[in-house]
Amino acid sequence: MTLEKETGTLLRTWALWFFGLTILSALLSAYPLLISSSLHRMSAMIGWGVSFLVCVVSGYLAFWSLGRSHNTFLLVALGGIVLRLALISGAVFVGISLLHLHTVIFLGSLLGSYTMYHGLEIIVLNQSKALVRTPGGSGAVARGNEAH
Fold it and tell me: Whose CB has fewer CB within 10 Å in the chain, the N or C terminal residue?
């Protein structure tokens, strides 16, 4: 199988797990959210939505960096940490200070879903490292015919 087909298969697997976990977490939180106030529901949904957005953006960047040079991959990984920190910090500031969301529910939803999505991303990226390694065991990554 070619690198592109393997990466496509991995991406489909990641998407299935991503949306499966999203549906599962929505089902598990449906009852508590239905019996709570509208502020609680809004706080939980905004926290989950921010986490969802961060995961989609960082997941796209992580998959884009696969098979690129080691420096590019590390730049994306470390830049992704800064991007996540900025997005989450900005969301916490806006959500609590400006929107006056319920703090515990907002932060619980945000951090709980972020942990779930980030764990999934780590698992998938660990599996994908085997796809982009060259057979010589040098640790270099390759994309198509390019070797970096």
Answer: N
Mean pLDDT of the chain: 78
pTM comes to 0.69
| Structural domain for 107, as ranges | 3-132
d(CA 103, CA 82): 23
- Does the residue 146 lie in any domain? no
Which amino acid, one-letter code, is at 87? Answer: L
Tell which residue, 87, 80, 5, 127, has the closest CA to residue 72: 80
Contact of 131 with 6, CB cutoff 8 Å = yes
Question: Residue 143 falls within a domain, yes or no?
Answer: no
Helix spans in 35-102 (H): 38-65, 70-93
How many angstroms separate the CA atoms of 79 and 96, rounded?
26
